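User: For documentation purposes, I need each entry recorded in a consistent format: the amino acid sequence on its own, followed directly by the corresponding structure tokens. There are two entries in this batch. Please keep commentary to a minimum and don't merge the entries.

Assistant: Recorded as requested. Entry 1:
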Amino acid sequence: MKSKKLFFIFVIVTANIFVSAIVTSDPCLLPVFSGPGANQFERFYFDKSTKTCKKFIYGGVWGNENNFQTEAECKQRCAFYING
């Protein structure tokens, strides 16, 4: 009986980790991150609280995947969240 409980806990924890990895790997759910750097590239990010693509200045170094070159690209990639 104890081994069944442990197995059940293992399955739940593993599933939770897997789902978390999927959710956080979606660029549309990541926070905006302008990154360091002296450059000033105009880019767009998806703001999940307003469900819109917004302009920001990208420094050119690091950043994350919530960084689109055009507003159209942002809207296309995050259409699922925009259209809900």
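Entry 2:
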Amino acid sequence: MLSIFRKKSPDAEVAKELLEEGDRLADEAYKRQLAAFVPIATTDELLGKFVDDHGDGLRDTFRWFELQFLWGFFHEYVQTRQFPTNGFSRILVHIIHRLIHKHGLNLTQARDAALQLEDLYNKADGNFELISELGKKSFHDHSLDDAMVTVFMALAVALAKERDGTSTT
């Protein structure tokens, strides 16, 4: 192998540090969301039923929420520094990094999931915009640490109305 590929570049080290910082900040933000969600989920009857009804599938729901939330969070984070790539590419890098290192996906799976998020962004998906906006706001304002509760309560109410045959409008 060429010696140039064996040398660590200063830019690569900076990129690694910024990825790690972004991941640490994202962990802190998402843990605050979970910390606000868990006590309410165990005491609120409607939210508790929602959690019980979705059982194992709730893990996937939480991951999908997490990724959309963190898309918004990383959207704000990448604007705090001068990065060598454009902001949207950097968001994808952060999402892929998280999926590989936090969720155990391989590179192909992580890339595909990140590109699904990008598609939602490009399509201006209403749910995606709502959840990612909470991530953006949470980056700047820790008083919004109950955003997950708000989203899941709205989802629980809508599903309860659907199940009971009542209108959601």
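Summary note for entry 2:
The chain has one domain: 11-163.
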